[in-house]
Write a structure and sequence with these properties.
single chain, mainly alpha, 3 helices, 68% helix, 0% strand
Length: 59
């Protein structure tokens, strides 16, 4: 499950998800804009998944 959660954490580039590609041009975003918020989201995602996955799916 950790691998599946890590695969869903694609926030760092506009190429990562279709929604990112859709809003890139109309929103006037640059490639580097995704890194600013993406790093924060990826760090939060890491903390949440590291804490919740062992609770929901224990070994």
């Amino acid at each position: 499950m950790l691998v599946a959660a890590a695969g869903a954490a694609s926030f760092l580039t506009p190429i990562a998800t279709p929604a990112n590609m859709i809003v890139k041009e109309p929103g006037g975003y640059r490639f580097g804009d995704y890194w600013r918020l993406g790093l924060i989201l990826a760090a939060a995602w890491l903390v949440v998944t590291t804490l919740l996955i062992p609770l929901v799916w224990p070994l």
